[in-house]
Design brief:
This protein has a single domain (3-153), classed as Nucleoside Triphosphate Pyrophosphohydrolase, CATH 3.90.79.10. 25% of the residues lie in helices and 33% in strands. The protein is built from three helices and ten strands, in the order αββββαββββββα. The strands form three sheets. Strands 1, 4, 6, 7 and 8 form a five-stranded mixed beta sheet that branches. The protein has a three-stranded antiparallel beta sheet with strand order 3-2-10, with no helix packed on it. The protein starts with a helix and ends in a 5-residue tail after the last helix.
Length: 158
């Protein structure tokens, strides 16, 4: 049993503050890897998940991506840390939490991509200008911030 499951046995569904990581993984065509998640309702999002005891946010990102996609990540670049009232989640089972999410980006990965089917329906690389409609709202914000980061890095303003 993991840390979060143990904590839930003690506090039930009451709101918690949890820490997680996601990774914007892009390929040589600048397409972004998205995961169609079983929960909630087949929505699309970035690979990632919640921290276990003793992990750094980088370790969380690497572990979750490996578990969900079978990819091994190399260098991670920090995009931003997201927190606040808009990071509130109520899971289908009634668990409530506010997540502090560290978002990274990278094109440094190896391995053969394979979806882990207990959490994922499918994985695919998408053009960042043509994302699915049912993308997780906070992940859409992270992708928008990533696009803005690219424009700034290229010396342009959007």
């Amino acid at each position: 049993m993991g840390y979060i499951e143990e904590l839930r046995e003690i506090v039930g569904t009451r709101p918690l503050i949890l820490v997680g990581s996601v990774v914007i993984i892009f390929n040589e065509r600048e397409e972004v890897l998205l995961q169609q998640r079983r929960f909630p309702n087949g929505s699309w999002g970035l690979p990632g998940g919640l921290m276990e005891l003793g992990e750094s946010t980088e370790e969380t990102a690497r572990r979750e991506v490996k578990e969900e996609t079978n990819l091994t990540l190399g260098k991670l670049n920090l995009l931003n840390v997201y927190s606040g009232a808009d990071q509130y989640i109520k899971a289908e089972n009634g668990d409530e939490f506010y997540v502090v999410t560290t978002a990274y980006f990278t094109n440094d990965y190896i391995g053969e991509m394979e979806a882990e089917h207990s959490e994922s329906i499918q994985l695919k690389f998408c053009n960042p200008e043509e994302l699915p409609d049912s993308i997780v709202g906070s992940h859409q914000r992270m992708l928008n911030d990533y696009k803005q980061h690219l424009y700034i890095a290229m010396g342009k303003q959007r």
